[in-house]
From TrEMBL:
Its cofactor is FAD. This is 3-ketosteroid 9alpha-monooxygenase subunit B. It comes from the Bacteria. It comes from Nocardioides panzhihuensis. Pfam families: Fer2, NAD_binding_1. Residues 3-107 form the FAD-binding FR-type domain. Keywords: 2Fe-2S, FAD, Flavoprotein, Iron, Iron-sulfur, Metal-binding, Monooxygenase, Oxidoreductase.
């Protein structure tokens, strides 16, 4: 099944550092309705590939809602897509893009924010900070770790924002070349007097693991502790989706043999269906009903399709992104969820 993708012109390519580029897109009037991002979300981009036709990659938005749509891409070692973008993309080129997705976004823009970024993980963090400074009322504290001064993405922008909002924004730059890698005790000391803040963490896996462990130790509640992560997409969300029938059949053996009832809330509207086939993933079922439920990779490799289970249970054919605490909180992936009870209630809000 093909997805609703859009061919967007590139307005500008900005060199942020020697290894990072910001891609600013034009938004033609007839596609603006599909691009209404929340701060911290990402775009799924189709990068041309001679070998595979295209490589689908998720890149976080660095722009705030209302600004020109912008993603920021940093080269990764042996990373085909990031290197292709940094080496080849020019203004006037076009890229095929899916609408914004992701749940790494604040529930309350007026909250106080404790933002942890490592390297290119600053991309969704600055999107959240820009939005909160513009629309919110709370305080914002940023801990930004990098290898050295030359690696700092948005260095001038952070300085400008801090100068314009001295009472609300504090940015702490941590440079490995000067201070070494931040230790758990140092991160703990930084966060310890901000226990009422909403914490967001994005960066390399070791950095996120250490930071999240500290937040747990400090007993930040799950509702105020957010972690962003991506897995490399193995499939093609821009074309035909390959159904893994054997995996689905195995899951169906544990579930109802008759159609299940699904009550789902999306954009404040609750709809009930009583004919959810137990062998059809929830995302596919909703799409067949004409519901534009969120998704990106369709393979259980990102969290764009995540919803919260309110009643009943589902079993996921695949899950490469949700951790046990997410599952304990009722979070499930719509693209992989098959009913295992006669009734399932859930919400995307």
């Amino acid at each position: 099944m093909a997805t609703d993708s859009f061919l967007l012109p590139v307005r500008e390519v900005v060199e942020e550092t020697a290894d990072a580029r910001s891609i600013v897109f034009e938004l033609p009037e007839d596609v603006r309705h599909a691009f209404q991002p929340k701060p911290g979300q990402f775009l799924t981009v189709a990068v041309p590939s001679d070998r595979d036709g295209l490589a689908a990659r998720c890149y976080s938005l660095s722009s705030a809602p209302g600004d020109p749509l912008t993603v920021t891409v940093k080269r990764t070692v042996d990373g085909y897509a990031s290197n292709w973008i940094c080496d080849n993309l020019r203004p006037g080129d076009t890229l095929r893009v899916l609408p914004p997705s992701g749940i790494f976004t604040p529930a309350d823009i007026d909250a106080d924010f404790l933002l942890f970024a490592g390297g290119s993980g600053v991309t969704p963090i600055i999107s959240i900070a820009r939005t909160a400074l513009r629309q919110g009322t709370g305080r914002i504290v940023v801990f930004y770790a990098n290898r050295d001064e030359r690696s700092v993405i948005f260095a001038e922008e952070w300085a400008r924002l801090a100068a314009e909002h001295p009472d609300r924004l504090q940015v702490v730059h941590w440079l490995e070349s000067v201070q070494g890698l931040p230790t758990a005790e140092q991160i703990k000391a930084f966060a310890a007097d901000r226990l009422t803040y909403d914490a967001f963490v994005c960066g390399p896996a070791p950095f996120m693991k250490a930071t999240v462990a500290v937040l747990k130790e400090l007993e930040f509640p799950r509702a105020r502790r957010h972690q962003e992560k991506f897995a490399s997409l193995g499939g093609n969300p821009f074309g035909e989706v390959v159904r893994v029938e054997d995996a689905e059949a195995e899951v169906v053996d544990d579930g109802p043999k008759q159609p299940a009832t699904l009550e789902i809330e999306l954009d404040g509207i609750v709809t009930t269906y009583d004919d959810w086939d137990p062998g059809t993933p929830m995302l596919d079922f909703l799409e067949a009903k004409g519901v534009k439920a969120p998704y990106s990779c369709r393979e259980g490799e990102c969290s764009a399709c995540a919803f919260r289970l309110l009643e009943g249970e589902v079993k996921m054919a695949r899950n490469d992104v949700l951790e046990q605490e997410d599952l304990d909180d009722g979070i499930r992936l719509g693209c992989q969820s098959l009913p295992t009870t006669d009734t399932v209630r859930g919400t995307y809000s």
